[in-house]
């Protein structure tokens, strides 16, 4: 067991489509046929082959995840997950946690070691960042405790306030160890 699980976790500001990790995670919708936000950016950067593969998958329920190749992306794979549309109900948190857990499980199943997440549901789907960050970090830390093979998890954010939310929470968890 590593001394501190969060040694394998970091936050980075920038465009997730530029990262040369084993897999980047896409905050998709249930059709898996593309959209705006990070989904649109990933499809634009990966090229039309990504949409062609997504068409073969038959969609994805909220909270689950599917994997495709990365095509023209520097990342080898894309893990598509569907976050909840924020409603303020307890089930939002359950669904959001399963997005992180199922994405990490797919990475393990495919022998992947590095994975980058956007702030799932925190754009169009309206999840407040300060509620989403503890779910993202705690679910990931619990998963990493049971899976040594994942060596790097990067939370990629666009905005300064999202960066501050992750940094603040990671710092508070580290101080609590
Ligand atoms: N790199 C990193 N983060 C990004 C990027 C990028 N290139 N682009 C946006 N973000 P959103 P959702 C951030 O709306 O809330 C789509 O239409 C963004 O600032 O992309 O899960 C899908 O098809 C925000 O913090 O995803 C669905 O219909 C975060 O990524 C719906 O939006 C997520 O915002 C999913 O909504």
Overview of the structural elements:
With 177 residues, this protein is of the alpha/beta class. The chain has one domain: 3-Layer(aba) Sandwich (Leucine Aminopeptidase, subunit E, domain 1), CATH 3.40.220.10. It is built from five helices and six strands, in the order E-E-H-H-E-E-H-E-H-E-H. It has helices spanning 37-46, 48-55, 90-109, 129-146, 160-176; strands spanning 9-13, 23-28, 65-69, 77-82, 114-117, 152-157. A six-stranded mixed beta sheet has the order 1-6-5-2-4-3, with helices on both faces. Helix 4 (129-146) links the parallel strand 5 and strand 6. Helix 3 (90-109) packs parallel to helix 4 (129-146) and helix 4 packs across helix 5. The longest helix is centred in the middle third of the chain and has 20 residues, at 90-109. The chain is globular. 42% of the residues are buried. Ligand AR6 binds at residues 15-17, 27-29, 35-39, 41, 83, 118-125, 156, 158, 162.
The total beta strand count reads 6
Average predicted confidence as pLDDT: 96
Reading the helices and strands in chain order gives: EEHHEEHEHEH
Count of domains: 1
- How much is the radius of gyration in Å? 15 Å
First-to-last CA distance: 14 Å
List each distinct ligand once.
ligand AR6
In which range does the helix fraction lie?
A: 40-55%
> Biggest sheet: strands side by side, in what order?
1-6-5-2-4-3
- Which architecture per CATH? 3-Layer(aba) Sandwich
Give start-end ranges of low-pLDDT stretches. none
Strand content range: 15-25%
Task: Specify the overall morphology.
Answer: globular
What top-tier CATH class fits best? Answer: Alpha Beta
CATH superfamily: Leucine Aminopeptidase, subunit E, domain 1
Q: How is the biggest beta sheet arranged?
A: 6 strands, mixed
Tally the helices: 5
Structural class: alpha/beta
Q: Determine the CATH topology.
A: Leucine Aminopeptidase, subunit E, domain 1
């Amino acid at each position: 067991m590593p001394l501190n699980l969060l040694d394998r976790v970091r936050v980075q500001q920038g465009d997730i489509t530029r990262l040369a990790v084993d897999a980047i995670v896409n905050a998709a919708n249930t059709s898996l046929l593309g959209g705006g936000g990070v989904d649109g950016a990933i499809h634009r950067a990966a090229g039309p082959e990504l949409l062609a593969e997504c068409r073969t998958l038959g969609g994805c329920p909220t909270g689950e995840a599917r994997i495709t190749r990365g095509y023209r992306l520097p990342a080898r794979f894309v893990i598509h997950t569907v976050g909840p549309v924020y409603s303020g109900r307890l089930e939002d948190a359950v669904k959001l946690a399963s997005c992180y857990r199922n994405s990490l499980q797919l990475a393990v199943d495919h022998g992947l070691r590095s994975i980058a997440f956007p702030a799932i549901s925190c754009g169009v789907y309206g999840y407040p960042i300060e509620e989403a960050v503890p779910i993202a970090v705690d679910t990931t830390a619990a998963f990493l405790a049971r899976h040594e093979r994942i060596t790097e998890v990067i939370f990629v954010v666009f905005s300064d306030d999202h960066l501050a939310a992750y940094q603040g929470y990671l710092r508070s968890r580290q101080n609590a160890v």
